[in-house]
Amino acid sequence: MGRKWNNIKEKKAAKDKNTSRIYAKFGRELYVAAKQGDPDPELNQALKFVVERAKTYNVPKSIIDRAIEKAKGGAEENFDELRYEGFGPNGSMLIVDTLTNNVNRTAAEVRAAFNKNGGNMGVNGSVSYMFDATAVIGIESKSEEEVLEILMEADVDARDIILEGDTVIVYAEPDQFHSVQEALKSAGVTDFTIAELTMLAQNDITLSREEEAQFEKLIDALEDLEDVQQVYHNVDLDH
């Protein structure tokens, strides 16, 4: 599958290390997950996923706890989960997931980010059919063979298990995310470098140097928006 998750994550971490933006995005996501279900991660699979994912981005426990406590405290902020789809330079495709308390504002901001950076919005379904919802889990403490054996013994299915750099990456169906993690935890894994539910492009494309620079400006503009939680795309930025 070859999306080079380590490189992608390192770039994102470097970009966000001196800002509070990533903490704010996780704070919102944690609040919504806790508000929509039980505020105990062990009783709320959606919340548990966000907590596990936040840990891989080194979100402080205080940020996690504060968001959950806010939901427990009866705060009445209402957020809608909305997905936008669009196109960038030379056939590049993007999916933009948002959490917003103002739908009109978010739609206008996402559309402006596309229009000002060489892209254009598409209709629902214009891009997403070229992506597969996928669970991606990465660890560094086991080999590929060990991970395969652990999952087989636990009767957990995976689409693929590959080595990328120093990290063993497990690709699985989204509903297998927690099963994969629990199997690995039972085998002594305590640290996950990647824990994502993502939209994985069926085929990546390569852009020219000029097109790639334009595309990265588009990605940056979208990720800078307060309401944007995730941006998925089909461009190989690590060639």
TrEMBL record:
Species per Swiss-Prot/TrEMBL record: Evansella cellulosilytica (strain ATCC 21833 / DSM 2522 / FERM P-1141 / JCM 9156 / N-4) (Bacillus cellulosilyticus)
Annotated compartments: Cytoplasm
Top-level taxon in the UniProt lineage: Bacteria
Domain TACO1/YebC-like N-terminal: start-end pairs: 3-74
Pfam families noted in UniProt: TACO1_YebC_N (PF20772), Transcrip_reg (PF01709)
Keyword rRNA-binding: no
A biological process from GO: regulation of DNA-templated transcription
Family matches, as NCBIfam families: PRK00110.1, PRK12378.1, YebC/PmpR family DNA-binding transcriptional regulator
Regions that span the bilayer: none
Domain TACO1/YebC-like second and third: 80-235
UniProt entry tagged with the keyword Phosphoprotein: no
Stated family: Belongs to the TACO1 family. YeeN subfamily.
GO CC, any one term: cytosol
MF GO annotations: DNA binding
Sorted UniProt keywords: Cytoplasm, DNA-binding, Transcription, Transcription regulation
The protein's name in its UniProt record: Probable transcriptional regulatory protein Bcell_2292
Main location: cytoplasm
